[in-house]
TrEMBL record:
Annotated protein name in UniProt: Kinesin-like protein
An annotated GO BP: microtubule-based movement
Binding-site residues, ATP: G4, Q5, T6, G7, T8, G9, K10, T11
UniProt cross-references to Pfam families, sorted A to Z: Arm (PF00514), Kinesin (PF00225)
Sequence ranges assigned to domain Kinesin motor in this UniProt record: 1-261
Matching SMART domains: ARM, KISc
Organism classification: Eukaryota, Viridiplantae, Streptophyta, Embryophyta, Tracheophyta
SUPFAM superfamilies, sorted: ARM repeat, P-loop containing nucleoside triphosphate hydrolases
ARM repeat coordinates: 509-551, 550-593
Source organism, top-level taxon: Eukaryota
Places the protein is found: Cytoplasm, Cytoskeleton
Length: 763
């Protein structure tokens, strides 16, 4: 913080941007340069808030409408926070300078006799840095032949740091500054807050029991700076004029008293097991809901098939009975009619041919009788022929009826076979339902195990925190594979029964010996050796030694020659750690690493192996110099090929690689070194990007949203993005994205691209 009389150069010392002369940069700009040089933007996050304390109200310089921010104190730790302040994520120095310029434009200043631009408020810049400590992430082990994964989870340790830069408003005497009206009220408020700060410094310097930190909001905000847990640097500024001798002496005395105050520095680390627990709960809810949905779908399908089969059987039986009854009635009626006709015809014939006794006739009468008898015979023959025709017709009808009956019988047999197949399908579905019930029981057992592990993690976290508070080491033992590797390497040396850590093993055995074991004929020993190298590569201090000793070449050789899935997974993870360094990235590309990683990705089925390979390629995608070579050797195709796995961790790494590649392309197009369409679009990545732009997993969605914004910044991609449906995803991101920086970037891109504006007006 800077303290001193008004007009003596506090704002000049802290807040100068140095745009015209870099040597005139203030402490704020220089501090951010140092922070950005010492962090990795892939694993660390930097966020900034810029505030002013004006007339005892805290206002946000980045959002002037937010002009009354409350102060919140943690009842357990006593930490002070400002939950209402805007937190802006910083990725580079340019955005930070723009943020400072925006904040300075909203700061209150006035013209007095001592200073033409006198600050009328205390400016407070807060920089928050978070880092996850490497080597303590979750581990996953799976049993062969099972689709269920048993997880042994360890929460990451999150290390937090906060830089507070305070530009205090200058103390002033009214008779010298000539303040009047509203400016006079501002001066009174400034002097009161500085007076409260002085009282706190005096109380702390004299080891007083009571420190009046609640007399002013300024002292409450600076509670950690004096007598707290922060490392504090104080800049005091004085004027050279003898006229201000009194103010100069007062400022120097303030600095002397402040030097007597002692702070107790504290490293702030905590286990991030809350986010781990939240992720487990979400995963369990998804598993349970998915299982319930599948079980309900199975039950509905079984009920539908059963109902349909019963309806079809009932309909067939009913149709068969109706057809049989109709045929029986029809044949009976025809039969009765035929019998009746035959009886009537027989009676007629008997009446015509009956013999009666007649008297002796004459010769003429006999000839007449003979002619009548012959005519009667002719008519009888005709009637017999007609009866034969009727009988033939009846026989034909009977045959047709028999054929129809046979057809109905065959249909009935077919329906019965259909019923039998329906029953077999029902039995099969019931068996599937039983299998689902068994799987549900297994899932419930896994859920119980995960809950017990979560409770154990929480108890271990509490125990570790207590050891840290007592001054203990708080170290977590290394994994069993590394320890078993050390035992095998030290078989010939007598030991005391204790397994040394990987660092101790590194010191005792030496890097060359460990690397030589990568070529061992014993596959088990080779697996443990590559795990040790992977653990060493996770530490940035060891990476240069590993590369110089030929470790990178050995790891790439393992990818080329070994067929062991475990070796591929661990070697790819070690290469991913080494690929975080720009120099190592060029070495990996120079030794054909991207081709080997692509082949490994094409042959791998294990999601963890694919995640490691995707992570390595994603790190390589962030290098501007390697864009064309990476694409030419199949790096983009390999990334897109890994989406077949559908595992969220693999998809998150693929999305990160695409976002890194799109960011480098966007930067190249803005610098004028690249023209034409994006290589991602040419390789067919746009449909997958649009499909996953609103993915429910936040890491995937965040990287995809960034990739879309970077692709949209180059106008050559506008036509493809409009035809591929990416325009409306950009509109959604500009309105609904949870992160303000991405939302702002999407809005700026939409408004600056004429093609997007024309398409939106047309639609």
């Amino acid at each position: 913080m800077a303290y001193g009389q008004t007009g003596t150069g506090k704002t000049y010392t802290l807040g100068r941007l140095g745009e015209e002369d870099t040597a005139a940069r203030g402490i704020m700009v220089r501090a951010m340069e140092d922070i950005l040089a010492d962090v990795s933007l892939e694993t660390d996050s930097i966020s900034v808030s810029y505030l002013q304390l004006y007339m005892e109200t805290i206002q946000d310089l980045l959002d002037p409408a937010n002009d009354n921010i409350p102060i919140v104190e943690d009842s357990k730790t006593g930490d002070v926070s400002l939950p209402g302040a805007n937190l802006v994520e910083i990725r580079d120095q340019k955005s930070f300078v723009e943020l400072l310029r925006l904040g300075e434009a909203h700061r209150f200043a006035a013209n007095t006799k001592l200073n033409t631009e006198s600050s009328r408020s205390h400016a407070i810049l807060m920089v928050h840095v978070k880092r996850s400590v490497k080597g303590k992430h979750s581990a996953l082990s799976s049993e062969k032949g099972s689709n269920l994964h048993m997880k042994t989870l360890r929460p990451a340790i999150v290390r937090k740091g906060k830089l507070v830069v305070v530009d205090l408003a200058g103390s002033e005497r009214i008779d010298k500054s000539g303040s009047e009206g509203h400016t006079l009220e501002e001066a009174k408020s400034i002097n009161l807050s500085l007076s409260a700060l002085g009282k706190c410094i005096n109380a702390l310097a004299e080891n007083s029991v009571h420190v009046p930190v609640r007399d002013s909001k300024l002292t409450r905000l600076l509670k950690d700076s004096f007598g707290g847990t922060a490392r504090t640097s104080l800049v005091i500024t004085i004027g050279p004029s003898p006229r201000h001798r009194g103010e100069t002496a007062s400022t120097i005395m303030f600095g002397q008293r402040a030097m007597k105050v002692e702070n107790m520095l504290k490293l702030k680390e905590e286990f991030d097991y809350k986010s781990l627990s939240r992720g487990l709960d979400i995963q369990l809810d998804k598993l349970i809901s998915e299982h319930e949905r599948q079980q309900k779908a199975f039950e509905n399908e079984i009920e539908r098939i059963t109902t349909e089969a019963q309806n079809r059987i009932s309909e067939v039986e009913r149709n068969y009975e109706d057809a049989l009854e109709e045929e029986r009635v029809k044949y009976q009626r025809d039969y009765m009619e035929s019998i009746k006709k035959l009886e009537e015809q027989l009676v007629k014939n008997q009446q015509k041919h009956g013999f009666e006794k007649v008297p002796v006739r004459s010769e003429d009468d006999c000839s007449a009788l003979t002619s009548n008898t012959e005519s009667s015979k002719i008519s009888a023959v005709e009637e017999v022929s007609e009866l034969k025709k009727l009988l033939q017709k009846e026989s034909l009808l009977r045959k047709a009826a028999e054929e129809e009956v046979n057809s109905l019988k065959s249909q009935l047999a077919q329906w019965k076979r259909s019923e039998a197949s329906g029953n077999s399908e029902i039995i099969k579905l019931r068996k599937m339902l039983e299998d689902e019930a068994l799987q549900k029981e297994k899932l419930e057992g896994e859920i119980a195990i995960l809950h017990s592990q979560l409770l154990q993690i929480s108890s271990e976290a509490d125990e570790t925190r207590r050891r840290l508070d007592r001054g203990g080491s708080g170290k977590v033992p290394g994994d069993l594979d590394s320890l078993f590797s050390q035992v095998k390497l030290q078989q010939q040396e007598p030991g005391n029964g204790e397994k040394a850590s990987v660092a101790k093993l590194f010191e005792q055995v030496g890097l060359q010996k460990i690397l030589s074991l990568l070529e061992s004929e014993d596959s088990d020993l080779r697996i443990h050796a590559v795990k040790v190298v992977a653990n060493l590569a996770a530490e940035e201090t060891n990476q240069e030694k590993i590369v110089e000793a030929g470790g990178l070449t050995s790891l790439l050789m393992l990818l080329r020659s070994s067929e062991n899935e475990t070796i591929h997974r661990v070697a790819a993870g070690a290469i991913a750690n080494l690929a975080m360094n720009e120099t190592n990235q060029e070495l990996i590309m120079g030794q054909g690493g991207i081709g080997l990683l692509s082949i490994t990705a094409a042959n791998a089925e294990d999601p963890q192996t694919l995640r490691m390979v995707a992570g390595a390629i994603a790190n390589l995608c962030g290098n501007d110099k390697l864009q064309m070579k990476l694409r030419g050797e199949g790096g983009i195709k390999a990334l897109l090929g890994m989406v077949r796995c559908r595992h969220p961790d693999v998809l998150a790494q693929v999305a990160r690689g695409i976002a890194n590649f799109a960011k480098c392309e966007s930067r190249a197009s803005m610098q004028g070194t690249k023209t034409g369409r994006s290589l991602l679009i040419e390789d067919g990545a746009l449909p997958w990007i649009v499909q996953n732009a609103n993915n429910e997993a936040s890491p995937i969605r965040r990287h995809i949203e960034l990739a879309l914004c970077h692709l949209a910044q180059h106008e050559a991609n506008a036509k493809d993005m409009i035809s591929g449906g990416a325009l409306w995803e950009l509109v959604r991101i500009s309105r609904d994205c949870s992160r303000e920086d991405i939302r702002t970037l999407a809005h700026r891109t939409l408004t600056s691209c004429p093609a997007f504006q024309a398409e939106m007006r047309r639609l």
